[in-house]
Amino acid sequence: MIARSQMLYECWSEVVRERSNQPALRHPDVPGGWTFSDLDRRAGDIELPASGYAIARGDTLDYFPTILAAWKNKLPVLILESRDSRPRPIHGNIPEGTALIKQTCGAPGVERSLFFGPSQVLAEGLRNTRSLELNPDHRSIAAISLAHSYGFGCLALPLLLAGIPIDIVPSPLPVFIQEALAKDGAFFLPSVPAIWKTWWLTKALDGSSISLALSAGAPLSLDLENGVWNDTGTKLHNFYGTTETGAVAFDRSTNPRTDASLIGDVLDGVDVTTLNQERIAVHTDAQATGSDVELRENEFNSPHYLTMDVGQVVDDKQLHWHDHVGMAINVAGRKVSPEKIKRVCLTTPGILEARVFGTRSRDFERFEEVSVAISIEANCDLKQIKTAIYNRLDSWEVPRHWEVNAENSKS
User: Fold this and answer.
1) Into how many domains does the chain fold?
2) Residues 305 and 198 in one domain
3) Which structural domain, as residue segments, surrounds residue 396?
């Protein structure tokens, strides 16, 4: 039996033994790409801290090697979006046996660190690979963040635990997707509704060879699903999970849905019920072991994890989604913390008061947008204030709507 602390690296080692010289990763900055052996060798060159945790940044070439090096050396690894992302302080001690740390606000809208042991990470990766029927002969296209929970679970883990090769594109712009899909082979392509809509409207998907098109992060409208189907023959498959629990449900149907609330069938090994006014509650072996900021007593020790989503289970297997009750603002699949934006506003010179809230977007696929109501000092330059705020936020966190209360302010 593989020791719990080593099971992840043992899985990777088996992948390397089986697929040693086969292509593992295509990347814009790596002419010719890397084989699985190349990735393994690069992991051996990574310098890790003597204690604490390693940091793997999703937009760098060392992202996968750092994760592998941490697994090999039994060190927790914190995954971050980009080279510019700053890790937040972790409150208290990291639980013993932690393999993975995610820093997110998730649906609750509360900034915190989530901890996962090796068995939880392994369960998530293998469940996604099996449920989605990912095949090493079909490459994945990474047009979404590899450090976001969705991309990590559906792209990063299948590569590292099951040998599913990845093509990384510079950005989700249609031209890069067209180039990626023009290569030989069939492709697994996960994204969010807002990006699927852009690809559809720009005809980036025409004539493509997509073995599986996955949509998650925000509600998928019937109009978008049917539009893509009618124009390209590609079926968009709904996929649902949470940062705390991992994957929960998947639409396996081969034809477009007729009910917009339907997510799909609950995955094997996952049990779903509803509690507390129809909130979706999930029992799974991929659930986080804990957090440095708990939302309620025994948040991670109950039989079912209580999510922030409202829904319904039909016939013991079909999961329907109706709404969410968390504080997070869902901007095109990205969960944004109102408290973070408020903190940035209130520490910006010239701002006296701030209120941050989400408003439904007129673009259904974008879902929600960030709105800010601020009071500012007299004679302040609003443009300078906005610029100062923009410079401290990620692009998806930037407010779209402003309400300003000021006397004699410069617009």
Assistant:
1) 2
2) yes
3) 329-405
Residues 114 and 168 in one domain: yes
382-390 and 338-346 helices, crossing angle to 10° = 130
What is the C-alpha to C-alpha distance for residues 206 and 31, in angstroms, rounded to an integer?
27
Model confidence pLDDT, tens digit, residues 284-299 = 999 999 999 988 888 9
Read off the tokens for 138. Answer: 């079909």
pTM score of the predicted model:
0.90
Residue 143: pLDDT above 70? Answer: yes
- Residues with Cβ within 8 Å of 17's Cβ and at least 6 positions away in sequence, in order, are none
d(CA 191, CA 121): 21
CA distance linking residue 213 with residue 217, whole number of Å: 14
Residue (of 178, 125, 177, 117) closest to 151 by Cα position: 125
Domain final position from 306, 324, 342: 324
CATH code of the domain in which 361 resides: 3.30.300.30
Report, as an integer, the average pLDDT of 12-34: 96
What is d(CA 229, CA 243) in angstroms, rounded to the nearest whole number? 29
Residue holding tokens 């635990």? 161
Same-domain pairing of 313 and 356: no
Tokens linked to 247? 């994957």
From 324, 345, 374, give the residue that closes a domain.
324
Check if the beta carbon of residue 7 is closer than 8 Å to that of residue 119. yes
- Pairwise CA distance, residues 48 & 340, whole Å: 30
Q: Which helix (H) or strand (E) holds 181?
A: helix 174-181
Give whole-number Cα distances, 25 to 33, 64, 95, 189, 396, in Å: 6, 10, 32, 15, 27
Indicate which CATH number applies to the domain containing 92. 3.40.50.12780
Same domain assignment for residues 241 and 381: no
Q: What is the pLDDT of residues 211-269, one digit of tens each?
A: 999 999 999 999 999 999 999 999 999 999 999 999 999 999 999 999 999 999 999 99
301 and 380, same domain (yes or no): no
351 shares its domain with 313: no
Cα–Cα distance, 165 to 188 (Å, whole number):
10
Asked whether residue 2 is domain-assigned, the answer is: no
Please measure the distance between the N-terminal and C-terminal CA atoms of the chain and give it in whole angstroms.
66
CA–CA distances in Å: residue 194 to residues 4, 171, 179, 191: 39, 14, 20, 8
What is the Cα–Cα distance from 339 to 199, expressed in whole angstroms? 33
Question: Are 313 and 353 part of one and the same domain?
Answer: no
